Amino acid sequence: MATTHNLGFPRIGAKRQLKFALEAYWRGDIDPSDLLEAAEQRRRENLQFQRHLDWQTVGDFSLYDHVLDSSFLLGNLPPRFRRNDGIPPLDNYFRVARGRSTDETPPAVAGEMTKWFDTNYHYIVPEFLRDTQFRLHPDALLSRIAEASEHGHQVKPVILGPVTYLWLGKSKDDGDRLDLLDRLLPVYRALLTRLAEAGVTWLQIDEPILVTELPPAWQHALRMTYYQLQAGPVKLLLTTYFGRLRENLQLACELPVAGLHIDACRHRDEVNQVIDWLPTHKILSLGVIDGRNIWKSDLNGLLDWLEPIHRRLDERLWLAPSCSLLHLPVDLESENELKAEIGAWLSFARQKLIELQVLATALNQGREAVAQALTDNAESISARQQSQRVHRSAIHERLAGITRSMAQRQSPYASRRQRQRESLRLPLLPTTTIGSFPQTTEIRQCRRDYRNGKITQDAYSSAMQQEIAYCIRQQETIGLDVLVHGEPERNDMVEYFGEQLDGFAFTRHGWVQSYGSRCVKPPIIYGDIERPNSITVDWTGYAQSLTEKPVKGMLTGPVTMLNWSFVRDDQPRANTCLQLALALRDEVLELEQAGIRIIQIDEAALREGLPLRRSEWQTYLDWAVQAFSITANGVQDPTQIHTHMCYSEFNDIIEAIASMDADVITIETSRSDAELLDVFEAFDYPNEIGPGVYDIHTPNIPDTQDILKLMRQAMKRIPPERLWINPDCGLKTRQWREVIPALENMQQAARILREKILQSTLA
Ligand code: GLN
Ligand code: ZN
Question: Which residues are near ligand 1 (CB < 6 Å)?
């Protein structure tokens, strides 16, 4: 008999109920008890969705973040939160998570947030000091276990393993995190005892760092840890996900635990090796249902592969999704507007667990026991494989026809630069913005009305044109050098383009938690990508018709479109990215034809696609850079290409970024205090750079002096002839009353610097 279980379920709720409860609580609209009641309802429903499995997972739910929950479980709060000022624990929890809870509780400096492995989920980074002490606080977890057991569930709790917990944290005093292991392990041992007393027999203990490149000291720490925990009274299911084990495979197989879970979706090829290495007293849990993507599994194909494995392992085989389902939308049932044909190809968290059960039944009782489900599945798999919506031969031909020269500009930067100077006639240190201007309630309302058919196309167009005209006037009054149309027509930088390309689908409720109460709704790329009509040419052309100054056309790049979507799994990601690149290339060329002399292609998410293992980075960067270059580099020399990236760490990918060969790159620098600019000391970035001179994420109005300071730092590393002045990202979340004085100060700083430079060249 194969056993079924799950690694974790989304917490947010199919209708984002948890989000709304959290936000109502922070606003002071509901009491703590209302919030806790809403949370309990979510847990109850999540367990219901898993009730047909052999084990129900507990401990995966969180009010904000499961890593933060681990810090509470282990008694590791940053010292600034430990003083008991009578703040209720619930509020203190939110203070660590987000710097504040309700208005009644004092604010604090929140814990840092960072990305969870290669997902778009963000966790709160544990903080460590040399003298950090741990203390077990098991009550929350124990009460979750009791709650689920009372409802008759067969409970398998999940916790984060000690080594991954240390790995994910940061030392605040340069101490070695591994030195804390000796103090941490007794707390884990005590926890195991408490769990056993609560009737727990199996514990899922997550050590996803086993799929990353580990220094020997960390590999050793894993050995030490599980050697010490093996005497414990509960059986440990050591759980890894998000990739293959590779050089850690033998280690993972040999650690003294009762079972091992591996991600068997991305890399089936490792499974046989694991089976060979795994001692015969251990169970093997195979993550066979993809927990990172929304496609239905090919159940018949899976069975062909699993049946021999099942015969070999029998009772020792467990089946699960590849990772926690946290990274998927909750329930496909809520989608009634998705085209029926496409809907039939998809599977969200709830449906994935049903697939899992069908698989297990087929293995345990024979395929006949689930014959109907298997036939239905086979039909929808083959419908997708053959759909005209998915496969368009013209696009494949175009892809096959990609040549090297398509990714290259006509001339090297130095000669382009001359042509661009002559054509654009910009002053030294030109000023510009990143694209969007404030999105007022009226604009949002207008877009919504148009969408819902409440206003005509003409009314919509003229409202947008009015807004564009307003943006242009403001920019001219401030005196900016390169203007933008302001992006009033865009709800989201990926969705807007996706909606106008063939091959994309959009859900109504396909929300996935990004952090805390924040969710994103990634588009679904299901088929070959084509651009039926031009997308931005009319808006940008209209803006350009209103001014003598150059208006910068604004596009989202292919890599960002890819990295912020659910991507089809029936061809390499690189190919999908190249299809996007070809479609966007046509848009670029059409903008150029329409007289737009500067085009910006945003790659906000380029970094997010980096594989977990550094050894795989180059392959990714190669095709990502190729895709960007195909989009951008078909233009004539005098046309200036900009790109924008909104993160500060790119020291480690600077060469790839330079090879994109954009004429100008604008980047975020203000928050990292120009630290980022250090990279330009070691690496001589050849083209032009606009270091973001102020942080658009706060309502604060930057001071001219601060902007000057940052620019002076920049000028130490990059000659002023290659510098631009701009904010560090788009302004859509700001108010006009913040934006205008901020940009005025920025323009003022440019004036002062130009004057100074002029004087010094005259002297
Ligand atoms: N052009 C986009 C904007 O200004 C860029 C957004 C981003 O980088 N995240 O909104
Ligand atoms: Zn940005």
Answer: 434-436, 487, 493, 554, 602, 604, 644, 646, 729-730, 732
Q: Which long-range contacts (CB under 8 A, 24 or more apart) does 665-669 make?
A: 665/689, 665/690, 666/432, 666/434, 666/600, 666/642, 666/690, 666/691, 666/692, 666/724, 666/726, 666/728, 667/691, 667/692, 667/728, 668/692, 668/728, 668/729, 669/693, 669/710, 669/714, 669/728
Q: Can you tell me which atom of ligand 1 is nearest the CA of 554? A: 1
Q: Tell me: the pLDDT tens digits for 492-522? A: 999 999 999 999 999 999 999 999 999 999 9
Ligand 1 atom 4 nearest Cα:
730
Looking at per-residue confidence, does 694 or 640 come out higher?
Answer: 640
DSSP lists the bridge partners of residue 524 as 505, 566
DSSP summary character for residue 551: B
> Which residue has 């390499």 as its token pair?
572
Q: Ligand nearest 564 Cα, by number?
A: 1
Q: How far is the CA of 579 from the centre of ligand 2 (A)?
A: 24
Mutate to test the pocket of ligand 1, among 432, 433, 434 (most ligand atoms within 8 A of CB): 434
Nearest CA to ligand 1 atom 3: 730
What percent of the chain clears pLDDT 90, i.e. is strictly above it? 90
| DSSP letter assigned to residue 426 | P
Name the DSSP class of 603.
-
- The total of other beta-carbon atoms located within 10 Å of residue 110's CB is 16
Give CA–CA dist 73/184, Å, rounded: 12
- The predicted pLDDT at position 85 comes to 78
Here the tokens at position 732 are 């859509």
Strands 155-160 and 202-206: parallel
592's tokens: 């150029």
Give the model's confidence band at 366: pLDDT under 50 very low, under 70 low, under 90 confident, else very high.
very high
Mean predicted confidence (pLDDT) in 606-622 = 96
- The pairing of strands 502-505 and 56-58 is unpaired
Evaluate if residue 311 carries a pLDDT over 70.
Answer: yes
Residue with the two structure tokens 């809403």: 38
- Six-digit token string for 47: 């367990």
CA–CA distance, 363 with 383 (Å, rounded to integer): 25
The residues annotated as belonging to the active site are 697
pLDDT band at 561 (very low <50, low <70, confident <90, very high): very high
Tokens 């944290």 found at: 169
Tokens (6 digits) for 109? 């400096």
> CB 170: neighbour CB atoms within 10 A?
12
Choosing from 120, 432, 436 the residue with most ligand 1 atoms within 8 A of its CB, the one to mutate for a pocket test is 436
The answer to pTM > 0.90 is yes
Q: Of ligand 1's atoms, which has the minimum distance to the CA of residue 729?
A: 8
Average pLDDT value over all residues in the chain: 95
**Measured CA distances, 242 to 211, 261, 264, 320, 457 (Å):** 7, 11, 10, 14, 45
Instruction: Tell me how far apart the alpha carbons of residues 142 and 157 are, in angstroms, rounded to a whole number.
Output: 9
Calculate how far, in angstroms, residue 578's C-alpha sits from the geometric centre of ligand 1: 22
Instruction: Write the burial class of residue 55 (CB in 10 Å: 0-12 exposed, 13-18 middle, 19+ buried).
Output: buried
Compute how many other C-beta atoms are within 10 angstroms of the C-beta atom of residue 733. Answer: 13
Secondary structure of residue 375 in the 3-state scheme: helix
Q: Which ligand is nearest to the CA of 733?
A: 1
Q: How far is the CA of 454 from the centre of ligand 1 (A)?
A: 28
**Sequence-separated (6 or more) residues with CB below 8 Å from residue 433:** 475, 480, 484, 726, 727, 730, 731, 743
